[in-house]
Structure formats: structure tokens, C-alpha cells
From TrEMBL:
<dbReference type="InterPro" id="IPR042098">
    <property type="entry name" value="TauD-like_sf"/>
</dbReference>
<dbReference type="Pfam" id="PF02668">
    <property type="entry name" value="TauD"/>
</dbReference>
<dbReference type="InterPro" id="IPR050411">
    <property type="entry name" value="AlphaKG_dependent_hydroxylases"/>
</dbReference>
<keyword id="KW-0560">Oxidoreductase</keyword>
<dbReference type="GO" id="GO:0016491">
    <property type="term" value="F:oxidoreductase activity"/>
</dbReference>
<dbReference type="InterPro" id="IPR003819">
    <property type="entry name" value="TauD/TfdA-like"/>
</dbReference>
<protein>
    <recommendedName>
        <fullName>TauD/TfdA-like domain-containing protein</fullName>
    </recommendedName>
</protein>
<feature type="domain" description="TauD/TfdA-like">
    <location>
        <begin position="94"/>
        <end position="434"/>
    </location>
</feature>
Amino acid sequence: MAPVAVTNDSTLVPTAKQVASSSAVEAAGDTAFVEASHPYQRRLKLTESNPNEPEVTFPLILKPTHASDLTTSQLVEAVKPLAPTPSSSYTLSPLQQLMDAHGGAVHFKSLPIRTADDFSRFMHALAGNASSPNTWQYHVDKGLMVIRHAMAPNVATANEGPPHQSIGSHNEYGLSTHYPSVIAFCCLSPPDTGGQTPIVNSIALYDRLKATVPTYVEKIQRRGLTFVIHHPVAKVKDSVQGNSLYNADSFGPTPDEKVDLDSLSEEQKRALVEEHILDLAREGGWGSPDDGQQGGKLGAWHERGFSWTWLPDGSINVFQRVPGIRIHPTLGKPAYFNNVGNRYSYSKEHGCLQPPHYSEVKKDFFPPPSFPLPLEDESGAEDEPIPLDEMEEALRWTEKLQAHVEWELGDVLVIDNLAVQHARTPWTGPRKLVASLWDQPSYLAKHAPVRT
């Protein structure tokens, strides 16, 4: 069934106190969250082929009661019971139950959040007030290609690319081995026009693509995907991928390494970058000696690992080979977890679908994704181009299933990154969104690549 707009009346969602476990902090006073509806929501089945699966409302919209006089401190107390509880192993949180029941996203509206610090307090309350594998921890960026600036504890600007530049659909760092489990956005200033955040469920995408382009899905499952990421030497203003190669959140020296970059020779700097690239590959299991003992053979993405090409201007193209389809930790269903949508969109928009994938206007590379080839392939190539009609079909289904989240002051959108892709539309006016990224180690450990 194709998704349709939600028109049902608002119903009362259980209070944070009711849905929380006994060890959680109870909501302050009688604060509850009321389910609301908006035309941008969708009704859809995640797995269309299953006649017994119910439709979900995607995303869930929640508004606090007494919103007109609710303080930030009261809000913070009210959401604490939704947080994960401390545990050495994975335990389902009330918030995760809500996300699982509504396609992986919750849009909190009518909140008294006005600053990055307000948003930070809200997110720390949702994270769980303890350091444990089952509570959320700060996500530390590695291999970052976008520019972000810190605004408050674990809050930074969202992608700082210009307002006219759309961003295609993607899981946050679905092109890497290092990605957060949760990503949240907060609106500190709404746009005049446009500026929606389209979201799409990754499980539904997998289901539709398997039915319409099965060869494409089968190749991703068997081989994985290759993403070629260009990292410039210096930051590039007004770019969606303009972060400097040598920044600590990219491939430069981290604060723990205590390295003075200016004291290194060009050869030493490149060696440091290359080791950081290999560290990223190892984080995804590349080079692990017990690959064959994990319940099946990993694809060509794992055999090939990461590689790179230094360019004459000192910048680098990094070839990141990753699975592309993973099993969702709690729902146990295959999810289309990758960045095919935005990388294909960039390449198409800039006229770079054909080699050498270089834009003379932007002075940058925008190659589309490709399939890694098995090591035994005798062609001499490492990667195989993906047929453009297959990526176009993936784009068509993405657009068909998307819900275009609209923003008002104080809104917070919380996304299960392992279940939902997000995007960005162009806008006019003073739109300002900030982002907060989190890892839940016990949850990430359950997010396994599909094995063949």
C-alpha cells in the first residue's frame, strides 16, 4: 500500500511515567505527551509483502501537555523516563519502543527549547544519566567530510552547506564503518519557505527495492558498496563536503595524539592520515582473523577494505567499502543502510555521473557509488559501476516513501539512525538547525551486516 497522509484525531500517549521502567526517574508533575497529527506524516507498512504486518504512523508526533507554560527544566524531567537504563547488555528503552512502533522517528513539538544549551539539556536527559554500554554516549566524528561547529555539550551546527543546496537521502555516516545510533535535530529558527527534513524508513526501502530491483539488492548484499570521498586540504566554504583533511574529526591528528601538525613533513602527515584511514577500516572488522567464524562469508567490501589516492593538490580521495544492508538491532529486519541516495544525487546534480566524476564549476569530485569486485576478479579493477537505472529506481522509491518533516521553533526530531534516512530541501529565510549525535554501544553491537 502506498503511504498516505495521516488524518486521525489526536490520542493520548502514555505518560513518560507510565512507559518508563521502574528504575527511571518519574516525570515531574502531571506532564504527559499527547500524540498529534500533521499532513506530512505517512501511513505505511515496513514490509509490504507481509499481510499480517500493521501499518505504522511515520513519524510519531508528540506534544507535551501544558506546553504554554512548560519550562525547560520541567521538560527535561518529563523526558528522563524515556531514556535507556544503565546495563551491561542491551535493554529496550521506552523511547526505542516508541521509535520501533513508528518507523524509527519521533518528532517532539511545542517544546520550550530556544537555545543550543536547552537542546543539550534535553538530549542529555534522553541519553540516560549514567555511563554504561546501554546508555547513550557522545558520538566522536571520524573521517568527517562536512563542516560543523560546536554550540553546546554534544550539540553542533548541522551541515553548513548553503541554503540553495539540497542534501540527498542518507543514513548518518552510512558510507562509513563509524556511525551514530541516534541523531537528533533541533530548530532554533524556522525557515520562511522550504527547509524540510525528508525522512524515509530504511527497512521499507529495502523491502520495496528487493521487490523491484532484486539484482541491485542482491549485489549489495553479496559485495557491499564503495563510496569515494574527497577530502580537501583546507576547509571549503559553502560546500556540503568541505571539511579539511587534517582536522581532528577528519583524518588529522586527534587531541589524544598530541601531535603538532606543523612540525611534520608532508610525508609524515600523509602517513598519519593513511593510518587513520586504516583504523576506520579496522573498526568495521576489516583484517579480523576470525571472519569465517561469524556465521557466513562477508562480501567483497570486506575483502577490499579501504584504499586511497593522493591528488596533485595534496587532497585525497578515500575509497570506503562498506556493507550497504544491515540487520536492524531490535526489529531483526534487513535495512537499506547507506548513502547511495545523497552520493548519487550529488553526482547527478553536478553532471559527474561519468568518469572522471569531476566538476570544473565546483572544482570537486562527485563520483556515484559503485560495487566492490571480489578479490578473485581478473579485470584488474577494484570496483564496478552501478547501473544508473538501478540508483534511479532507489531514488524513486525514496521520494515515494519520504515524509517531509516541517519545522517550527523548538521542535526536536529524534531519529534511530539504523532505521531511518534523512535529507534536506533548499530554503529561504533564517533557518537554523543544530544536531546532536549519540552512540548506544549495546545497540550498535547488534547491528550486523547481511552475510552471504
